[in-house]
Amino acid sequence: MAENASRTAVLVCQGRAAAHGRLAPERFADPTAMPLLRPDERVTVEAVRHGEAPRDWRARVAYEGILAITELMVPRTVAIDDAVRDHAAPQVVILGAGLDGRAWRMAELRDADVFEVDQPASQQDKRARAAALSGPPPAYVPVDFRTDDLGAALAAAGHLADRPTTWIWEGVVPYLTPGQVEATVGALTSCSAPASRLVVNFQLPVPLLKLGFLAARALARSTGRRSVLSREPWRSTWTPRAMADLLARHGFTVTQDHNVLDVAETLGTPIRRGRSLAQSQVQVADRG
Ligand SMILES: C[S@@+](CC[C@H](N)C(=O)[O-])C[C@H]1O[C@@H](n2cnc3c(N)ncnc32)[C@H](O)[C@@H]1O
Q: CA nearest 70: which of 88, 87, 47, 38?
């Protein structure tokens, strides 16, 4: 794995792999997740799938981490997939795609031009892993939202600004500052024709967030590992109102607002860490 490739992208992929075929199987499936993982990354996933909690402390911490992410990924994925499905668009752009398998797994995207945007190191890693998947790959567009021109990179890859686009922005906003989030929304707006849709997932502000991070780091240190949060720290959280206002400034109207805990309750999926699910929001915004 490239040294600078995203570790959080692997974690959420492990969550989807652990959930596939087990949690809400009538509403959630991701057969691409396991093939996108390296053999060593599958070990804990298999333990979670078989409910085999390890006795060893280090392995147990990893196991509990994947278990928690598994609970989060099912409702988050279902909310986003539903919003993509009910709004057919000729182009789909997955922003900060990580190890997202939607380009391969969603039949609804087969007739669309699909673009995956990600930091160069994460994207290089994804391309190597995706050799295990069958089906046409998306167009890969290396972009760092902090420094690069999203519109120019997409145009060079064949994205057409005068055709509607569905934008999927899942699990990326927390890693950007408020200014970088606003700039990225501005950049995608300038290549969003009318009837475009943005599906954005973000984290809500919660009390004692910093304390939670310190605890997570201490727990990781107790196993001799570095917390993924120390390399990929959170830089912004948003209230639903603040995000809706930001989107409105750029001509997008929020038409759906889902709290991930509510989605999990509707699906009837396990809720052991309700506070973590309640912290995650999915908004769907349309451009008239
Ligand atoms: C938690 S992963 C989510 C991946 C994927 N969207 C998913 O939900 O499976 C975070 C992703 O955001 C990407 N990312 C973080 N900061 C970024 C930036 N400044 N520019 C581009 N991508 C970024 C990482 O490379 C990584 O792929």
A: 47
Distance 97 CA to ligand 1 centre (A): 6
146 Cβ below 6 A of ligand 1: yes
pLDDT given at position 226: 78
- Bridge partners (DSSP) of residue 93 are 115, 167
Minimum-distance ligand 1 atom for the alpha carbon of 98 = 27
- Can you give the pLDDT at residue 1? 63
149: CB partners within 8 A, 6+ apart: 187
Extents of the domains making up the chain: 7-286
- Ligand 1: atom nearest CA of 168 is 6
Q: Which CATH number, 3.40.980.10, 1.20.58.410, 3.40.50.300, 3.40.50.150, labels domain 7-286?
A: 3.40.50.150
Tell me the mean pLDDT in the region 201-224.
83
Any atom of ligand 1 within 6 Å of the Cβ of 113: no
- Token pair of 199, please? 């599906």
Tell me, using a 6 A CB cutoff, whether residue 65 lines ligand 1.
Answer: no
Digit-coded pLDDT (tens) for 222-254: 887 877 777 889 999 999 999 999 999 999 999
- Residue 106 to residue 24: CA distance in whole angstroms: 17
